[in-house]
Write a structure and sequence with these properties.
The chain has a two-stranded antiparallel sheet with strand order 1-2. Strands 3-6 form a two-stranded antiparallel sheet. A hairpin with a 5-residue loop joins strand 7 and strand 8. It has about 525 residues and is mainly alpha-helical. Helices cover about 45% and strands about 5% of the residues. Helix 9 runs antiparallel to helix 10, helix 10 packs parallel to helix 16 and helix 17 packs parallel to helix 18. The longest helix is centred in the N-terminal third of the chain and has 28 residues.
Length: about 525
Amino acid sequence: MNMRKLYSILSIACLLFCSSCNNWLDVTPQGQVEAEDLFQTSKGCNSAVGGIYYTLSGSNLFGQALSYGLIDVLAQYWDFAASTDHVYYQAAQYDYNDQTVISVCDNAWGDLYYAIAQCNAFIEYAEPYQENIDNYDLLLGEVYALRAFAHMTLFELFGPVIHTKADLQKDAIAYRTVYNNISQGFDTGETVLENAAEDLTRALALLENDPIRNGETGRTEDGNTSVIDYQDVLNFRGARMNYFCVLGLLARLEMLRQNPEVAYTYATRVLEECEGIISLVDKANIMTPGTSRICNFSTEMLGSFYVNDLYTAAGNLFGMGGHTVSNTMGIVIDANRYGALQNYVYDRQPDGDAGLDTRFSTWFQASSDYANYDFTKFLEPAERQGMGVAYYPEIPIMRLSEIYYIACEAQIGNDNTLALQYLNTVRDNRNLPLLQVQDVPDDATLLEYLVREMRKDFIGDGRTFLMHKRLFYDIYTARGETIPASDNIFVLPIPDDEYEFAGIEKPGTTTNNQN
């Protein structure tokens, strides 16, 4: 969807996406909110923000394509060599001229900008009525952070590879802060990330009193005390954009800006401030197969998107939960794919051990018919005693493990012993032996071990391909091969008509001037 089409239908479609419901976790629209009332009441504003989450958690974005779908195919977790007619085959070849790949990229681009437009509408139209809106600061803080996050995602997907800080001067995407349909040229990467930093900093201040910081409320509890005056924004703060998630995104952003020292400061703040509230998964729980094991590691999600149809969509893709898929449409984890994960992701030597790694044993389990394997990050569990709200269908915006990885990377070349401590914290939690300093003789080796850990952790989350892009790092394939890092594979295609809309010449084209 190009920007002109997007904005021409925006005023009508916004109402459909921002429908009211008693609890925003039930994201199926129920009725419509009148346009003139939408931003004037607490109920309307909660619905409007719920509409932004509804867009971002859709299948074109983090509900599939940008999590366990296309973006993980680009990360080479799955082998399609035997199925050249598979819907993802061309994507695995980085054929960005393929119509299926183009369609997925176009949809992601359009929906991200649609979410941004929803954010801009809230910021503009709710402000005059802020005195009438309960928890206005919380809502506005979420919206500013979601706007920054959507732009950061666009930059990570479609922006140039940043080899050095000089590359931040290249045109990237448009950072839109006004609710209109006026064309806007592409901003440089530096401008995009500076604007995102300003939005996140503003959000952090607005979320200063976020209930998630209260140990009694935490990430899963409902802070509402009245059914009559129920506020969606107070329920299940961990499945929203919250204070800790914003702080973590600032660390991620500074790594994108190649400012590791600043990123490290934000990362250590996250570790200090969320202690006792958000933590790495309970290793004893994961190592003991029982009725309460939390396979999606939700306790370490700094923030997430609640995806209403996650188990159905993932079941359809991976052939789980009784869903049957074809060889050309699904990614059934058969013995070959299971073996590839074991050999080339979790058991890579000398630092891997699939037999010990709780991620491998937890996330990939023999299905009920024992013919294939379930990807339990996305498998709806049977009713389990004591599980409660800890096992909602969530896609992480950011995990606490990424904070440890950022802290590790930021110290490589500065204090490798400290860097190794951060990496070992996660390895120990995943039941792997600690790496010793003598086993990591140089910066490159330590970075290699870090990349391998991130690949193990991020599968299904949509971060691996973007990590390889930021580091300009070769990609390991499910066939045991290596794909050299290249600008051509790391920059996804921007929709053709966006260049026309922005008044920019598409790279690689020439203008034929005739007198």
